[in-house]
Design a protein that fits this description.
Layout lengths: L19 H16 L4 H8 L3 H12 L5 H7 L2 H21 L4 H10 L10 H28 L4 E11 L3 E7 L5 E7 L4 H12 L4 E7 L4 H11 L2 E3 L2 H18 L2 H26 L10 H39 L13 H22 L3 H33 L5 H21 L5 H18 L11 H15 L7 H17 L4 H13 L9 H6 L6 H8 L18
Parallel strand pairs: 1-4, 4-5
Antiparallel strand pairs: 1-2, 2-3
Length: 564
């Protein structure tokens, strides 16, 4: 061991890395000065750099393989700013939002010949990607704190589900705005874990969860009931999927034998008809002709039984499909055809009729035990749909009571305005264009009645009417029929995971930021703007201010060629 008093030799000082913006500015100033007759040495002295260094930078610029005009532009402050914007946009759109690798950005820069001015290598673009991933997480934290401080208190309904990457990822989305309030990895997915994770995600925000929508996972149910003390509304999609799984394939397989019997009977009839046609075409043989008409009539009569059997099996299949789809039509607070109020008891009756049809066919088709278990599983969720309808009507009634409206106005709002607004929402989710047009026509008629010029509603001031419709829209947003937003998000994440093999926690947070603050609906709003009630700081410009300037490309080394 060396003596403690021995002084280690000092390392040579390392020159600090020059800022590229400063270098480009000096090169541009020197080039302009040369055109004006000022020497490079004078510019170097004024700028405080060595003359040899400035000459080196100018020579490096002249070595770029590009036309003088292109070279002069991109090796200038304005050109560097444009390059910075292009690289930042490519990284945000292609890598962060599009799921491409950093190498694709490098390929884009090479093909566009911008790689002559910025580093297009894997290392250069991977460094930009890493920095942007970190910045996206910082942006989300900063904007959440800033926007949450001035956010108007509101009630929300969250759609929740888990996905696996293969780590368990808990996902919760505000149904009204589409904002992802929770998306992170967790070792467990029980009710306590869900409650703790959601509480952390909503900490500091003036929001109250009034309902949870999700599948029948025990953890989600316990989280809603015990952790949050709110109702757990079922997911209509999962119930219908279970019913289709229980009935579709067994009933389709049940068609095979009746179809074969009917086709055989029809083929037998066609053979006798063909024999009769051959006989009449001639030449006719000796003896009395066969009674072809009697045989054809008997063959056609023999078709009746297999045809009736086949049509009966087809009818069973169609009736089950119609019964399952009727659940979707029944699970609305207002009738889609008339706009009339659908009570909890009405929904209970409609569900009972649908399951009675399914049970009748299941008994007649002698479905397997596992199929009956699936049907019973779906049946047990039925009371939750009824409770969700009752919850919605109760919430709406309490919200309208706070407005202290005149009884005549209140009646118009309840029977015309709110149903019309709901049908306008429901029309966007119609299965066909014809259904959409029909629902929109009913909605327009109800809204026209509510807003009749001589009616009590239009006698109110515009500000009062706006307040009423704002309250109505807020309550309608609380009625959520399925967790389609979460299912779609899970599929979106799965696509990223397949491309990247795994999603790190920083990358997952960056993807959440892209969804909440960058992706826009056709109306131009982001999920964050809809959730917080005000637009966030422009994400791209925020990144542009904080990302490092594009790296200088390395000089291209000439390739050595062996002599022939």
């Amino acid at each position: 061991m060396a003596d403690q008093d021995t002084v280690a030799p000092m390392a040579a000082p390392v020159a600090p890395k020059r800022n590229r913006a400063r270098v480009v500015e000096l090169v541009h100033r020197a080039a302009v000065g040369q055109r004006q007759g000022r020497s490079v040495g004078v510019t170097a002295a004024e700028s405080g750099v060595a003359r040899s260094t400035l000459y080196h930078w100018l020579a490096r610029k002249e070595a770029i393989e590009a036309s003088p005009a292109v070279r002069d532009f991109f090796v200038s402050p304005d050109g560097l700013a444009m390059l910075h914007r292009i690289v930042t946009a490519a990284q945000l759109v292609f890598v962060q939002a599009g799921g491409c690798g950093a190498d694709r950005v490098g390929e884009f820069l090479e093909l566009s010949q911008l790689g002559r001015f910025v580093g297009a290598s894997h290392g250069s673009q991977h460094a930009v990607m890493t920095q942007m991933t970190t910045l996206l997480g910082e942006y989300a934290d900063a904007e959440r704190q800033r926007l949450g401080a001035t956010m108007v208190p509101r009630n929300i309904v969250v759609c929740e589900d888990e996905t696996f990457h293969p780590e368990t990822c808990l996902v919760a989305i505000d149904a009204a705005s589409g904002l992802i309030v929770l998306e992170h990895y967790s070792e467990r997915r029980d009710g306590v874990t869900w409650t703790k994770a959601l509480a952390g995600a909503l900490a500091g925000l003036p929001v109250t969860v009034v309902q949870v929508v999700g599948d029948e996972a025990k953890g989600l149910i316990a989280h809603a009931r015990d952790g949050l003390g709110v109702g757990h509304a079922p997911d209509l999609f999962h119930v219908q999927r279970d019913l289709f799984k229980a009935t579709s394939r067994p009933l389709a397989a049940r068609l095979d034998r009746p179809q074969e019997e009917l086709e055989a009977a029809e083929a037998y009839t066609k053979r006798w008809e063909a024999n009769k046609a051959d006989y009449h075409r001639g030449p006719r043989g000796p003896g009395r002709p066969m009674n072809y008409d009697r045989h054809i009539a008997e063959a056609r009569a023999a078709e009746d039984a297999p045809r009736a059997n086949f049509e009966g099996v087809c009818a069973d299949q169609d009736n089950v499909k119609a019964a399952i789809r009727s659940l979707s039509a029944a699970y609305h607070p207002y009738d889609l055809a008339t706009g009339a109020l659908r009570t909890a008891q009405g929904v209970r009756t409609a569900f009972a009729e649908a399951f009675a049809t399914i049970d009748d066919v299941a008994l007649r088709a002698n479905l397997a035990e596992r199929c009956r278990e699936r049907i019973d599983k779906a049946r047990r969720v039925g009371p939750k749909f009824v409770a969700a309808i009752a919850f919605f009507h109760g919430q709406l009634a309490r919200a309208l009571d706070t407005l202290a409206l005149d009884p005549l106005v209140l009646d118009v709002v309840r029977t015309m305005l709110v149903p019309g607004l709901y049908l306008a929402r429901a029309a966007g989710r119609a299965r066909t264009a014809a259904e959409r047009a029909t629902i929109l026509a009913t909605s327009s008629a109800l809204l026209a009645q509510a807003r009749a010029p001589t009616g009590p509603y239009m006698a109110l001031s515009p500000s009062v009417r706006r307040r009423i419709e704002t309250v109505a829209d807020a309550q309608l947003a609380l009625f959520v029929r399925s967790t389609a937003c979460v299912e779609g998000r899970n599929g979106h994440l799965e696509r990223y995971r397949h491309g990247l093999h795994q999603l790190s926690r920083p990358r997952l947070k960056a993807l959440t930021t892209i969804h909440n603050f960058y992706a826009r609906r056709p109306d131009g709003t982001t999920a964050a703007e809809r959730f917080f009630g005000q637009p966030p700081v422009d994400l791209f410009e925020w990144l542009l201010e904080r990302l490092d300037l594009p790296a200088q490309p390395r000089p291209r080394r000439p390739r050595l060629r062996l002599a022939a």
